[in-house]
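Q: I have two molecules that I believe assemble together. Could you output C-alpha coordinates for the complex as a whole instead of separate predictions?
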Amino acid sequence: MVALAISWLKDADQALQAAKNQQKAALLDFSAAPL
Amino acid sequence: MISSNFIPAKIHIKEQPQTFKRFGAQWTPTLLVMTPDGVEAHRIEGFLPVDDLLAQLTLGLGKALFKQEKFADAEKRFRAVVQNFPTTEAAPEAAYWAGVSAYKATNDAGKLKETHEFLSKKFPSSEWARKAMVWAG
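A: Yes, here they are, computed for all two components at once.
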Protein backbone atom coordinates (compact mmCIF):
# COMPACT_ATOMS: atom_id res chain seq x y z
CA MET A 1 0.00 0.00 0.00
CA VAL A 2 3.02 2.27 0.22
CA ALA A 3 5.83 3.30 -2.12
CA LEU A 4 7.18 0.56 -4.34
CA ALA A 5 10.79 1.78 -4.04
CA ILE A 6 10.97 0.49 -0.48
CA SER A 7 12.98 -2.68 0.03
CA TRP A 8 10.59 -4.91 1.94
CA LEU A 9 11.64 -8.00 3.78
CA LYS A 10 9.25 -10.94 3.49
CA ASP A 11 9.69 -12.38 6.95
CA ALA A 12 8.31 -10.81 10.13
CA ASP A 13 10.86 -12.46 12.41
CA GLN A 14 13.72 -11.33 10.20
CA ALA A 15 12.40 -7.76 10.38
CA LEU A 16 11.96 -7.93 14.15
CA GLN A 17 15.48 -9.27 14.61
CA ALA A 18 16.95 -6.54 12.38
CA ALA A 19 14.91 -3.94 14.26
CA LYS A 20 16.31 -5.22 17.55
CA ASN A 21 19.87 -5.23 16.23
CA GLN A 22 19.58 -1.72 14.82
CA GLN A 23 17.33 -0.37 17.61
CA LYS A 24 14.77 0.81 15.06
CA ALA A 25 11.05 0.29 14.83
CA ALA A 26 9.77 -2.48 12.57
CA LEU A 27 6.86 -1.97 10.20
CA LEU A 28 4.87 -5.07 9.37
CA ASP A 29 2.56 -4.62 6.37
CA PHE A 30 -0.10 -7.31 6.11
CA SER A 31 -1.26 -7.23 2.52
CA ALA A 32 -3.54 -8.91 0.02
CA ALA A 33 -2.28 -6.90 -2.95
CA PRO A 34 -1.54 -8.91 -6.11
CA LEU A 35 1.83 -10.67 -5.90
CA MET B 1 10.19 8.10 5.36
CA ILE B 2 9.65 4.36 5.71
CA SER B 3 13.17 3.24 4.80
CA SER B 4 14.82 5.78 7.08
CA ASN B 5 12.67 5.11 10.11
CA PHE B 6 11.63 1.46 9.94
CA ILE B 7 12.77 -2.05 9.18
CA PRO B 8 9.87 -2.88 6.86
CA ALA B 9 8.43 -6.29 6.04
CA LYS B 10 5.50 -7.14 3.79
CA ILE B 11 3.52 -10.27 4.61
CA HIS B 12 1.06 -11.58 2.02
CA ILE B 13 -2.14 -13.33 3.05
CA LYS B 14 -1.72 -16.08 0.47
CA GLU B 15 1.89 -16.81 1.39
CA GLN B 16 1.80 -16.51 5.17
CA PRO B 17 -1.70 -16.96 6.63
CA GLN B 18 -0.21 -18.21 9.91
CA THR B 19 1.70 -14.95 10.35
CA PHE B 20 -1.56 -13.06 9.88
CA LYS B 21 -3.09 -15.18 12.64
CA ARG B 22 -0.07 -14.83 14.92
CA PHE B 23 -0.25 -11.01 14.82
CA GLY B 24 -4.05 -10.83 14.81
CA ALA B 25 -4.26 -9.26 11.36
CA GLN B 26 -7.89 -9.78 10.31
CA TRP B 27 -8.15 -7.32 7.45
CA THR B 28 -5.93 -5.86 4.76
CA PRO B 29 -4.10 -3.65 4.69
CA THR B 30 -3.02 -3.84 8.31
CA LEU B 31 0.18 -2.10 9.35
CA LEU B 32 1.85 -2.76 12.68
CA VAL B 33 4.50 -0.48 14.15
CA MET B 34 6.65 -2.59 16.45
CA THR B 35 9.22 -1.42 19.00
CA PRO B 36 12.82 -2.66 18.68
CA ASP B 37 11.90 -5.15 21.41
CA GLY B 38 9.07 -6.58 19.30
CA VAL B 39 6.15 -5.01 21.15
CA GLU B 40 3.24 -3.69 19.10
CA ALA B 41 3.09 0.09 19.49
CA HIS B 42 0.50 1.06 16.87
CA ARG B 43 -1.96 -0.63 14.50
CA ILE B 44 -3.33 0.89 11.28
CA GLU B 45 -6.22 -1.00 9.67
CA GLY B 46 -7.62 -0.10 6.26
CA PHE B 47 -6.39 1.99 3.36
CA LEU B 48 -5.46 5.63 4.02
CA PRO B 49 -4.57 8.54 1.70
CA VAL B 50 -0.89 9.49 1.77
CA ASP B 51 -1.01 12.32 4.31
CA ASP B 52 -3.14 10.30 6.71
CA LEU B 53 -0.82 7.32 6.34
CA LEU B 54 2.31 9.40 6.96
CA ALA B 55 0.63 10.96 9.99
CA GLN B 56 -0.28 7.53 11.36
CA LEU B 57 3.21 6.17 10.77
CA THR B 58 4.73 9.15 12.57
CA LEU B 59 2.22 8.70 15.38
CA GLY B 60 3.32 5.07 15.53
CA LEU B 61 6.97 6.06 15.79
CA GLY B 62 6.06 8.33 18.68
CA LYS B 63 4.20 5.52 20.41
CA ALA B 64 7.12 3.16 19.90
CA LEU B 65 9.46 5.69 21.54
CA PHE B 66 6.93 6.26 24.33
CA LYS B 67 6.84 2.52 25.03
CA GLN B 68 10.63 2.62 25.32
CA GLU B 69 10.23 5.49 27.82
CA LYS B 70 12.10 7.84 25.49
CA PHE B 71 9.62 10.57 26.32
CA ALA B 72 11.45 13.60 24.92
CA ASP B 73 11.98 11.86 21.56
CA ALA B 74 8.40 10.62 21.57
CA GLU B 75 7.13 14.15 22.17
CA LYS B 76 9.06 15.39 19.12
CA ARG B 77 7.40 12.78 16.91
CA PHE B 78 3.96 13.55 18.28
CA ARG B 79 4.44 17.29 17.79
CA ALA B 80 5.61 16.64 14.21
CA VAL B 81 2.25 14.99 13.50
CA VAL B 82 0.35 18.01 14.83
CA GLN B 83 2.55 20.45 12.90
CA ASN B 84 2.85 18.61 9.59
CA PHE B 85 -0.54 16.89 9.37
CA PRO B 86 -2.94 19.13 11.31
CA THR B 87 -6.04 18.11 9.38
CA THR B 88 -5.65 14.36 9.90
CA GLU B 89 -7.40 12.23 12.52
CA ALA B 90 -3.96 11.47 13.94
CA ALA B 91 -3.33 15.10 14.91
CA PRO B 92 -5.51 15.38 18.03
CA GLU B 93 -4.35 11.97 19.26
CA ALA B 94 -0.74 13.05 18.73
CA ALA B 95 -1.37 16.31 20.59
CA TYR B 96 -2.74 14.32 23.52
CA TRP B 97 0.28 12.00 23.64
CA ALA B 98 2.69 14.91 23.18
CA GLY B 99 1.27 16.35 26.38
CA VAL B 100 1.53 13.03 28.19
CA SER B 101 5.11 12.62 26.97
CA ALA B 102 6.00 16.12 28.19
CA TYR B 103 4.47 15.32 31.56
CA LYS B 104 6.30 11.99 31.80
CA ALA B 105 9.60 13.71 30.94
CA THR B 106 9.21 16.56 33.43
CA ASN B 107 6.59 15.50 36.01
CA ASP B 108 5.11 18.96 35.45
CA ALA B 109 1.31 18.72 35.61
CA GLY B 110 1.15 22.09 33.88
CA LYS B 111 2.00 20.24 30.65
CA LEU B 112 -1.29 18.37 30.91
CA LYS B 113 -3.28 21.55 31.51
CA GLU B 114 -1.61 23.16 28.48
CA THR B 115 -2.54 20.11 26.43
CA HIS B 116 -6.16 20.34 27.52
CA GLU B 117 -6.23 24.00 26.52
CA PHE B 118 -4.61 23.27 23.16
CA LEU B 119 -6.97 20.43 22.33
CA SER B 120 -10.03 22.41 23.40
CA LYS B 121 -8.98 25.24 21.11
CA LYS B 122 -7.65 23.37 18.06
CA PHE B 123 -9.60 20.11 18.09
CA PRO B 124 -12.70 20.80 20.21
CA SER B 125 -14.82 18.04 18.66
CA SER B 126 -12.26 15.25 19.01
CA GLU B 127 -12.50 12.53 21.61
CA TRP B 128 -8.93 13.46 22.62
CA ALA B 129 -10.14 16.89 23.69
CA ARG B 130 -12.78 15.17 25.81
CA LYS B 131 -10.18 12.82 27.28
CA ALA B 132 -8.05 15.84 28.20
CA MET B 133 -10.92 17.63 29.94
CA VAL B 134 -9.90 15.95 33.19
CA TRP B 135 -6.72 18.04 33.06
CA ALA B 136 -8.59 21.36 33.10
CA GLY B 137 -7.64 21.84 36.74
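A: One point stands out. The interface with chain B takes residues 1-3, 6-12, 14-16, 18-20, 22-33, 35 of chain A (CB under 8 Å).
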